[in-house]
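debug: dumping io for the single-chain case to check the tokenizer round-trip. Nothing else runs in this session.
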Amino acid sequence: MNTIYAREDDLGADEYIDVVAKSGLNRPIGDRPRIERMLKQANLILTARQDGRLVGFARSLTDFCFCCYLSDLAVDSACQGQGIGKRLIEMTRTEAGGANTTTLLLSAPTAMTFYEGIRMPKADNCFLYRRQQ
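debug: decoded output
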């Protein structure tokens, strides 16, 4: 299947929610106003589409020259294993500033093997406050 990748600054909540639900990613998809705010405030959204249908996306916050937080990476479970997630990460790194920009993500426990499998470097110097809801 032919996959078209693009930068989309106006990804809609309906498509986002659909792919999150089909991917297994844990996001507050029952809180549409929160999802809409999440999408509006992201400044780098890359998508993967097959026959016009959204099958994956990477949503990030970045300054495009020093740091990038890849906040969401989701691929419809029916399309996983096609290299879509890996390609979206590579595109995120390029769009965010390439080798001059640190790209950081926090993995869901169920996705750890994916990131290890694509040999994404693992950090041991991260600190965080977890959200309460």
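debug: round-trip ok. The two ends are 38 Å apart (CA to CA).
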